[in-house]
Amino acid sequence: MEYIIERQHKFSLGFKELIRYRELFYFFTWRDIKVKYKQAALGFLWAILQPLAMMMIFTLIFSKGLKVSSEGMPYPVFALSGLIIWNIFSNGLLNSANSMVSNANIIKKIYFPRLIIPMSSILTALFDFCFALVIYIGVVIFFGFDAEWWKVILYLPISIALTVLTTFGLGTFFAALNVKYRDFQYMIPFMIQFLLFVNPVLYSSKVFSSGWLALIMKLNPLANAINLSRSAFTNTPVDWTGIGLGFITAFIFFFAGIYTFRKTEAYFADLA
Q1: Does 52 reside within a domain?
Q2: C-alpha to C-alpha distance for 110 and 172, rounded to whole angstroms
Q3: Residue 150 in 3-state DSSP?
């Protein structure tokens, strides 16, 4: 049986081809999960302990120390609502940006849709998110904080979709560039640390109520995703204009990432 490899359009996701190789999603994702936790004594518990430890540390620093406003929410709930969304982005971006280089040997040997590699890295981040979500719900119940759960069920998937779209766009963009310019593997961890403090993960976005910083927050898909995940707890009206602008920005990242990836993927086997 012969299989003809067709050249994909530079803005195409190659959905039909990805469906044909869908079993590879499982293989690469499960392999990354096992490699991540195999040598750890606590195993999958780290997916729970990490966001929980970060929540406690940031509560001591920002709530007890700096008295940062948490929009009427218990600060642990406030911090965790931002961290669970942020960790999808940070882990997904870091893993996907380095994914092509770390899988260089496989890329050189066989053909398969290269987009599967950064995609599976983001799926691994979503696996960790599932554990963090359990902790998030447990913390909300522990503090007895009243939430409109129908809003949580409605808003959280939209928030996740916005985050994943942004992560995929930037992840594929940097994955392609990282193959040729290895400087990005040093720059990306610093960039992620920087973005943690310029996004409203640990503080309220209301501090940017006017001016050009407020406009940047409206265009920022991560800021909108975090704000949406908190809306069910703060009883504040959802800024659907900001959500719409955030999706526009996320789609720009998405197509820029696809275009860059498609433009350079013919050279992956040589450069990796």
Answers
A1: yes
A2: 20
A3: helix
